[in-house]
Amino acid sequence: MKNVKDKIIISAAVGFTAASGITPVFAQETTNAEVIKEDVEAKKTKKEKLEDSVKTAKSNLDDVKKVSDEKKADADAAKKELEDASAAQDKQYAVVENQYDKAYDSVNEDYQALLSKASDLEEEIASKQAELDQYTKNEESAAKNLEEAKKDLADKQAKLDEVNKELAKYDKTSIDVDLKTAETEQEKAQTAYNSAKQANEDAASALTIANGDLSAKKEALNTAQKAYDDAAADVNAKQEAVNAAQANVDSFTGSDALTNAQKELDQAKSDLVNAQAVAANAETVLNTANTELSAAETAQQTAQNEFNKSVESFNEAEKALEEATNKEADAIAARDQANKNVLNNKGLIENLTTCKSQHEKDVAAAEEAVKKAEQEYANGKTEKQLAQDELDKFEKDYAQDLNYISKGTQGFFEYLNDDLGKATAKVFDKTDSYYGKIADYVKLNEENDATDLDNMFAVIPYLKKMNTIREKHGLPILQVSMFQMALAQANSDWAQKNRGHSHILQNGASGSFGENLAWGPVDPYTGWYDEEKAYSDFIDDYKLKNPSATDDEIKDAAIAAGKYSVHSGGSIGHYKALINPNYNYFGMGYSSQGEYGCNYSQDFSQNQAPTDRVMSVEDFEGTLYSYKTNVDSIKRKRQEKIDAVNNASDDKSDLGVQQAKAELARLEKELQKDIDDLNTANANKTIFEQALSKATTDYETVHKDVVAKTEAKYKVESSKGEKEKQLNTAKENTEAKKKAKETAETNKATADKVVDDKQSQVNQLNSKINNWNASKTKAEKQLVDANIALNEAKGKLNGATENLTPAKKAYDDAAAAQAKAESDSKAANSAFVSADTLLQEKNDSLAKARKALANYNGAIKAVKDASDTVDAQSALIDKYTKAAEDASAAIKETTKKIILLVDSKDELDSKVEAKKKVLDVIDDVKANGSRANTSSITDEELLGYLDELAKEVDEFEELHIKFANANVKYMTLLSVYEEAKKDEAQAQTVYDEAMKALDTYIQETSKHAVKTENNTNKNNGVSTNKNGNTSGAKKTNSTNTGVETGLGLDVAMMGVATLGIVEAKRRSKKQ
């Protein structure tokens, strides 16, 4: 059966056809001017004939107009009928839509919700599947990691056994005794050394002073001696001048004086000639020396050039040898690596063969384990029961450890020693008559309490810093007392409520005791040591400079200088406690939360408590670290067991089966890996052997090249040596020639001076002979002057002699003092050397003792590190085991969830499909009304909606039929009206033409005729305008066909458009 949509389209098509294709039968009734056959009266004038044509055309136009008006009225009535039908149809459609929405929405909301849930389920299933894939990968990875971790654990355990054996070699008691002895002897040696050093420095200082005094006296003596020597030399010179003057005067005495002077002149002239000959010969020798030096320098340069060439050749040969040697080294490395590859591969094949055999056995055993696990599962307990069994067993196995853990630091003390535990328990006993005062504030093992294990571990850096300070002051380091640790912890808890000391310091032994307290999250040594030491040093210095200063004066000065210990209220007691030489043992407590924030307590004792346990800071740190690591491991494992109980289901656990199967799968993979690796190794055997053969050949080639390059280097090196010898010979020859030249230059200068002296003598003798009397008088005058100068010089010599004698005495005294100071310095230095030697011996002994302790501590640390490594590896195994268990449990749980989700999805899909069918029925009712099949609907409320919808749809279809018929009727009458309008337009045209013809005729007559004719026309009620158009008729007689036709078409198209709108609405079904 065709639906409403098809009906609307068919109706629209019929309506359009009726509007466009029907021709009205009365269209043939239209008349025009040609219908008139001939005038009735043949004798009428032309004017009368034209007027009759006008009358006839006018009558015909009126008739046609009447018909057109009638047809328009019919079309208007049909239009009104169409509009009413359209309004009724639209109104009913709105009712249908409203009823449809009620029915559709009542179902669609649930339908959409189901679709959304279905989409969410699909996403969740995909997500869970991804999780399942990841859990499967995790399980495989954990199994692989677990196997590798187990292998590593064996290696690490072997290492732990090894370092434990090494530790067993040490005797800690002997080490401590030796160290104590060495420290005592070193201290004595250090004291002796310091004394000897000071004495040596004092003696050296005295020697320096004596040397300085001797130097000053020596300088004074030298000055006096020089003055004496200069005066004596001046006396000698003046005496010689007197002697020369006397001789010169004497030369003028006697009858042969002039003759003797002439002889002296002749001899001088002869000497001058000889000196000139010697000078000429010296110049010849100098010229020869210059020539020989130039030749020698040229020969040296030639030898240098040859040597430079030999050096270049040697460098090139050396570089070539180095490159060849490097290639040889590379070839050796390549050969060794190739040989190593062959050997490694051989060993690998042997190992893989062994592993393959072992894994085959392991696989067989694992297959049996799977069968056993499956049998145990059939008779097994639930997951929760198994998990509880594991927890119960763990708590039973670790009952003692758990008891220690529950007591915090007290548990640690009990773990070290039962007697120690009993002693420290009294400190924490609230009923104890002495310690109860501070025990009241202890909250054993609570977080932030000083007895929390983490807080005891936190004080270790401060224990170390304490001994660093003691060493800085040359004091023995303190041992850590476990009893003092407990006491300090209780006092720290006390200090969280009380801003002061509890005065509970006794440990049951005699001796002195002390305590330091500090509050706040800062390094306590900032106040205890830094501030108070600065204040203490200031006090000592100020008292030294101001012996009578009062305490208040010192305090004010310290405040002004910024040295006052503000944080401790001017106390230096904490500082004094830190450096108290009577203390040998100490402990520290740290409470991390309380009324005063965190605080630190430090308790000292001279002697250790009865049943106490003492150890070095390093030993304490190692012991506590080992204990705490074990505690943390036990606590973690126990919590894992508790979590396992809480998270376990009440279903039977197939974890054992899964683990057995996982182990079997892992071993099968290992076996297959062995097979694959063995095949690869066998394939690599030939490759590695061929590579070794090639590497050996390559080595032999480059080795030959190294031999050749070595020989070449030796040859050029030999040549270089020969060239170097030649160069050295040339240099020696050049140096000799330089010296010969210098000698020749000296000889030439000497000869020239002799010539000058002889020439001067000749000139003087010539002057003497030529001016005899004047020269004699001058000589006598020179003798007198020389004697006067001699007497003056002798007077200065006497004065210098008087100054020299005391200077010599002062120098002799200073020399004696210096000798004694030098002797004392040597003796002091000898004593210092002996003290230094002894100190070095004692330092060596101390260093040896400390090294022994360091070695012991190193062994302890090695054991601790190895133990930590084993623990860490064990934890890693636990981690991988748990990871495998978690992954297996997650696989099981996720698989269950996926199955449930898939079942839910299937169920939901059925509901979605059911809702979809209901919506289809609703759409069918909207399309077909009461003809639709609603038998599948069981919901009474929805059936009520559908019955109402069907009635409304049926009513809409009836209204639509009426609308379609009204539309066809309107379109038909509209078409008839349009044809009538065409006839009216044609009659109008005939009438207009008749009027035009009459108007033309009238215009052709005379004016008189025109006037007469006009009168006649007026009487007839007809007139024409200037354009020949008839005037006087009502304007309504003129037909505006364009406007009317347009209106008609608009109305017609409106009907078609209305059909389109209706169709569009009916197609807007909700999805």
What would you say this structure looks like, in words?
The protein has 1071 residues and is mainly α. It has helices spanning 4-21, 46-168, 172-250, 257-378, 383-397, 399-406, 409-416, 418-427, 436-439, 453-458, 460-472, 482-495, 525-545, 551-561, 573-578, 617-647, 655-770, 772-928, 940-1004, 1007-1020, 1041-1067; strands spanning 479-481, 513-519, 585-591, 599-605, 614-615, 1023-1024, 1030-1031. The strands form two sheets. It has a five-stranded mixed β-sheet with strand order 2-4-3-1-5. It is extended. The model is unreliable at 1-40 and 1010-1071 (pLDDT under 50).
Total number of helices: 21
* Mean pLDDT level: 82
Q: How do the helices and strands follow one another from N- to C-terminus? A: HHHHHHHHHHHEHEHHHEEEHHHHHEEH
Beta fraction? under 5%
- Largest sheet at a glance? 5 strands, mixed
User: Roughly how many Å apart are the termini?
Assistant: 24 Å
| Main sheet strand line-up | 2-4-3-1-5
Helix content: over 70%
Q: Got a strand count? A: 7
- Structural class by helix and strand composition: mainly alpha
Name the overall outline. extended
Compute the gyration radius: what is it? 69 Å
Give the structure's gist in a few sentences.
The chain is mostly helical and 1071 residues long. 81% of the residues lie in helices and 3% in strands. It has 21 helices and seven strands.
